[in-house]
Every structure is written in structure tokens, then in C-alpha cells.
Design goal:
The chain is mainly α. The chain has a single domain (18-169), classed as dinb family like domain (Four Helix Bundle (Hemerythrin (Met), subunit A), Up-down Bundle), CATH 1.20.120. It contains 6 helices and 2 strands. Strands 1-2 form a two-stranded antiparallel sheet. Strand 1 and strand 2 form a beta hairpin. Helix 1 runs antiparallel to helix 4 and helix 2 runs parallel beside helix 4 (103-123). The longest helix has 24 residues, at 56-79. It is globular, with a radius of gyration of 16 Å. The two termini are 16 Å apart.
Length: 171
């Protein structure tokens, strides 16, 4: 049986934990190499990670899309007063033509994106990390520090799904 959450669900602390934020930033920095390694030598990038869900290729492009949005959300949170960020339809985006491109194209976006995002995140102090932003479908601001914590998990979660699928389906 393939796990939906092979590393478990995201665990976000109730309050700012600078150690956890720094560990999360390190994970964001490491993601491009971890993702490239998970994809290396895959025999079928168009195989779904589980029955009836995204292919490995589509999932890789989803990571690029999602992390671009998270990077922008980070910048909005630290430059505007409680910005309401726009959501997007992840499933609709995954059906667009660019999600059928080679995974190397997604990695070519993720590598420099993560380099910029890590540089930004490492420059933020506690007061900036506590700045708020309003997630789609909510009304209460969330602190900016939740973004790296959540997206460190997000990247690791999807890499684990790829590795799980490759092992299960012998890809």
C-alpha cells in the first residue's frame, strides 16, 4: 500500500521556533539536489505516484509552481501589511502544457528560485518572520515563519512520494 503521506503530515509549531525555521530553510536549500537525485534514472516519469493521481513529471512541475507561489507569498508577507494572497487551482495548473515539459525544465526553475528564496529567508529576523499574511479562504493572518516550515515539509513530502513510487513500481 502506497502512503499518501510517506513522511507524515506537516507539523507546524504554535509559535515561532527559530531553530525549526533555520532547519526548514536548510531543507529548502537542499531540495533541488534531493529532487534531482529522486528523479535520476527514473524509467517512466509519466507513471503516477499512486493510482489515479499526478505523474512523477506533473508532481515535479507542481513543486516548481507551488514553491514559486510560496516565494512570492514570503515577499508579500515581509513587504506589505497582512496581504491577502491569491490562491490557484493546482489541478488546473497541472493540466497545462508546461507540466508536460521535461523535469529538467522544472529543476531549472527550482534551483535558482530556491537560491533566491533561501537568501531572502536567511536575511529575515524574528520581527519580519512574525509579519502576517492571509491565506486563500481564510481571514486571520498567519505569521511568515510558517511559510518555510510548511514548504520544507512540502518539498520533502513530494520527494518521498517520488521515491516511494519508484520503489513500489520499480521505476
Amino acid at each position: 500500500m502506497l502512503e499518501v503521506y510517506p513522511i507524515g503530515r506537516a507539523q507546524v509549531p504554535d509559535d515561532l521556533d527559530l531553530g525549526r525555521v533555520l532547519t526548514s530553510i536548510d531543507a529548502i536549500e537542499a531540495l533541488p539536489d534531493a529532487l534531482a537525485a529522486a528523479l535520476d534514472g527514473c524509467g517512466d516519469l509519466d507513471h503516477p505516484i499512486r493510482e489515479g493521481v499526478w505523474s512523477i513529471r506533473a508532481l515535479t512541475h507542481h513543486i516548481a509552481d507551488s514553491h514559486m507561489n510560496a516565494y512570492i507569498r514570503t515577499k508579500l508577507a515581509v513587504t506589505e501589511e497582512d496581504p491577502v494572497v491569491k490562491g490557484y487551482d493546482e489541478v488546473a495548473w497541472s493540466g497545462l502544457a508546461d507540466s508536460r515539459l521535461p523535469v529538467t525544465d522544472a529543476l531549472a526553475v527550482i534551483r535558482p528560485l530556491h537560491a533566491r528564496w533561501v537568501e531572502l529567508l536567511r536575511s529575515l529576523g524574528p520581527s519580519e518572520l512574525r509579519r502576517g499574511w492571509v491565506a486563500p479562504g481564510t481571514t486571520e493572518p498567519r505569521p511568515a515563519w510558517r511559510i518555510p516550515v510548511t514548504y520544507a515539509w512540502h518539498g520533502d513530502h513530494h520527494v518521498a512520494q517520488i521515491l516511494q513510487a519508484r520503489a513500489h513500481y520499480h521505476l
